[in-house]
Amino acid sequence: MFLDFFRKLAGDTQGATALLFGLMLIPLLLAVGVGVDYARATQMRTMLQAAVDGAAISGAAAYTSPSAQSTATALAQAYVTKGTGALPSSVTITSTTITPSTTGSGNSTAYVMYVSVTASVPTTLMYPWKSSLPITASATAKNPVVTATISGSGFKSSACDGNSLYWYIVPSGGGIPSASALNYVWSNSDASQPSLSISIAASQQIGFVMKNVTGGQCNYGNNQYGSHPGDVQYFYSNLTYPNQSATTAPGGASTGSHGNYYTTKNCSLQTEKGTWNSWTQSWTYSNPSSMCFTSSSSPTNTTVMTNAAPTCANLSGTNYQYSWNDMGGNTDDLDYNDLQFNMQCSGGSGSGNGTTTSGVVLTN
User: Fold this and answer.
1) What is the pLDDT of residue 119?
2) How many Cβ atoms from other residues are within 10 Å of residue 24's Cβ?
3) Residues with Cβ < 8 Å from 44, sequence gap 6 or more?
4) Global model pTM greater than 0.70
5) pLDDT, mean of residues 143-157
6) Please, are residues 167 and 194 in contact by the beta-carbon 8 Å criterion?
7) How far apart are the first and last CA of the chain?
8) Is 296 exposed, middle or buried (0-12, 13-18, 19+ CB in 10 A)?
């Protein structure tokens, strides 16, 4: 039908028909130009939205406390800069807004990062009527505060050494925390090991220290790797593997005058993901003694260090058991009764869904 119409137009020599076609051509070209330019603007907005989403998520993930606000904001800005740098050079960024804030209070708190970017996309066929099209993309991400619970679950140690448990915020660059960063939980010499609840951002990485004092409970002489009675070793869960720096005190200080003693096996810490037993209404765990590996080989089971230094978002509400052994003697290298505790996270109503399974949440 349309082909016939255009054939007639092409064969018509009358001026009126040519004039009519010319008049129809103008809005037709305008419609085509509008479509092309708006399609390009839509494509640029999609790219811009991806950059803004990434900036909001990364900023919120780093926003783990009021003191981290400036660092989180700078990280969000860096993501905006990197993301918008991938846009064509003809696209001009006209404004950027990055706003950190908090919502709620107590365990209903969430650290929020809002990012909005407006840009100008030049037109092509529309240029005579409109030289550019504005596009805006915005995103809000929330990092909820949750409750991490550390429980001894009635743990009683038969170890002769003195073993104490500490938790700490893993340094941003990794490595060994400072002494002031360690928070005491309990030791095997305490009468009981009560549960400890910590309010913490879902994306905040937590590490654990086992402080081991050779012969702290009973004097049996030197242990298998030469540590003397009274010597102190620190085992850090965020190190791979925890006993590779076992004689290094927090902050890198010396631990004693008897030299550096390294354990003969890299299996001082095993982590086991709990399985919920609906019949007994309790968590069960695998046997850690079957998962040891030596310092000269790769782990025989790569899951043994999973979530050794977790975030609550990583745990996704599952209960994990942490079993420690100081590797101090051949007869007890695999019993893992030097220190043992469970960790589970809950809460996070600041995320809007009441769970910790998603960690940082992109809300729009």
Assistant:
1) 95
2) 11
3) 87, 88, 91, 119, 121, 135
4) yes
5) 84
6) no
7) 47
8) exposed
Q: Answer for the pair 347, 315: CB distance below 8 angstroms, yes or no.
A: no
Cis peptide before 241 (omega within 30 of 0): yes
Give the pLDDT score at 104. 81
31: tokens are 């419609």
- Name the nearest CA neighbour of 144 among 350, 357, 347, 314: 350
State whether 224 and 315 are in the same domain. Answer: yes
One DSSP character per residue, 171-220 reads PTT-SPPPGGG-EEEEETTSS----EEEEEETT--EEEEEEEETTSSS--
Question: Does 360 map to a domain?
Answer: no
Residue 84, SS3 per DSSP: helix
Domain boundary among 144, 174, 190: 144
Quote the tokens at residue 344: 């589970």
Range of the domain at 113: 2-144
Cα–Cα distance measured from residue 228 to residue 293, given in angstroms and rounded to the nearest whole number = 25
Domain boundary among 144, 175, 198: 144
Band of pLDDT at residue 27, cut at 50, 70 and 90: low
The residue among 264 and 227 whose pLDDT is bigger is 227
Q: What's the pLDDT score for residue 96? A: 96
For tokens 């448990």, the residue is: 165
- What sign has the CA pseudo-torsion 243, 244, 250, 254? positive
Q: How far apart are CA 264 and CA 175, in angstroms?
A: 21
Total of domains in the chain: 2
pLDDT surpasses 80 at 235: yes
Mean pLDDT of 83-104: 92
β-pair partners for 136: 118
Query: In this predicted structure, what is the pLDDT of residue 260?
Result: 52
Instruction: Say if residue 138 is in the same domain as residue 156.
Output: no
Residue 244 pLDDT: 59
